[in-house]
Amino acid sequence: MKKLASLFALCVLVFSAAFAQDQQPISTKNKKATKYYNEGLSDYRLNNAKDAVKNILAAMKEDSTFVEAHALLAKIYLDQNNSESALTEFKKAIAINPDFLPVMYFYASQIDLSLGRYDEGLVFAQKFDRYATSNAELKARTKITIADCKFSIEAMKHPVPFEPQNMGAAINSKYDEYFPAITADGSTFLFTRELIDSVTNPSGNEDFYMSYRINGKWDGAFNIGPPLNTELNEGAPTISANGRLMIFAGCDRPDGHGSCDLYYSVRHGDKWSPARNLGSPINTRLWESQPCLSTDGRTLYFVRGSVGGDGVHAQDIYVTQLSDTGTWSVPVKLSDSINTPGREECPYIAADNQTLYFVSDGHPGFGGTDIFMSRRKPDGSWGTPKNLGYPINTTANETGIIVDPNGQLAYFSSNRPGGFGGTDIYQFALYDSVRPTAITYMKGKVYDAKTEKPLGANFSLIDLSTGTTVMQSTSIAFDGTFLVCIPLNKNYALNVTKKGYLFYSENFELKDSNSSRVHPYTINIPLQPIDTGAHIVLKNIFFPTNQFDLKPESQVELNKLVDFMNLNPTVKIEISGHTDNVGSAASNKILSENRAKSVYTYLTTHNIAADRMKYKGYGQTRPIAGNDTPEGRAQNRRTEMKIVAK
Questions:
Q1: What is the pLDDT of residues 212-247, one digit of tens each?
Q2: How far apart are CA 7 and CA 425, in angstroms?
Q3: Residues paired with 306 in a beta bridge
């Protein structure tokens, strides 16, 4: 059942005012009923609930239509979290005198909502909405309740596919497991386990556990150990795409800024570094928790919250960006399309970097917290959130989910019957309309082409149709390794850059791809130092068949070349065109030279001095692959750039 305390705190003063005055009740003429009621009211004010109930029941026995007695008894039952009995008494009081205390309709609507009785809850909420009230919060909450009930009534008529499967003994144990996380290649699973021992650790200790996927199955989870796991609690982790960086929530720590802060740890080999506070401006005197790192490692979503004097949590989702200098920007609260006056929590940005899952009690749902999904619009804003529907969302308070990089499976924690312990981690297949865009990924190593020394380099994945950068990443400097996520269903240019080196480009034609047929890419990237004679293939320059007019999608690569020339003002280059062996050698030479000239002309019109460049067509004379296959011929049809002076 949904928790009601935070909702009822909104109207407790309104309700209690009806019983605040020392006056004789006006709805009964029965003296014994009056006597018992006054004694019960006195007990209630003295927080003596047991005697209060006894006296109120005695008053109602004397006069069953005693509306004040029914209303007061309902309030006492609410204080005892006995919602069913409270609802019964509210209904009796309303039946006796519908206009006695309008706020009873509000209470009744909230209890019905929490119990999944949406038809009745809608009726009560609509009745309360017709009464005048000066309490703006009650009025706003009633509007939400009406929306929740209407949504739930319709949603339950159209249940969505949902068959959760326990992840099994490799992940779950007799202890509680929750807050899962997964790497972008789907090979590493991370979660929190609470270890409780009645003798040595009765209050419990939260540690991180990890499992590797081996031959399609999760291997037995292991404690990642010190120095990251400590005697303090570690929880709510997010892990970078390459599994090297973890950010998590730590509470009540000596170096904390507030009650809970975000911390980070870096993995070197198989060892994690001691946790360090992320510091300002992310952490504040408030509490920060539930981080989620985007797959490019440059965007961090998290929850910032505070607790008011009435005990009500105010929670919103914030986002911060990592700069090229390695500092996080001042966090910004997500727009009103995501955040509401209610609670938002458990953000999860899918591997496509375009689909956001989160938990909220402020959007139309089943009451309390439900799981929602929103997609990023072309302008970068977030679309209207979609409730994941019934029975993924229910009358229970749902926790957040994470999604496997392939977009097919979601993972969540639940204490449903039949598990290994109190709370276990489950998986289920997401239905089509709430799946993120499927991704593939490219991983490998960046190194100096001459010395083979590992390099830290910058990666940019660019949508060729729009020129928009959709992913940014870096390789690890000490070993050169990288992992870049690549969403399907679009064509991309990948550029790898490092100062002092020629850039590297790759092309991914995935616009009409099928996720079941796209395999991950493993590519080692040798970056060439800027030396005379060094050359690269410009893989994202395109021409129509047998023509030399540049296609619009070539601008991404051409602009990268312009940037390179501006950053290296002493460099002189040759642009060369090459073809396959289809057609005559003479026509191929002319075509290749015209194509090289088109690139040269683009650069000159973008203020690159003509005396720094020359162009030449080599036709079919310099193949880099065999011309006996379509794939080989495609490689031979290319544009290259070579350093002729520096």
A1: 999 999 999 999 999 999 988 899 999 998 899 999
A2: 29
A3: 314
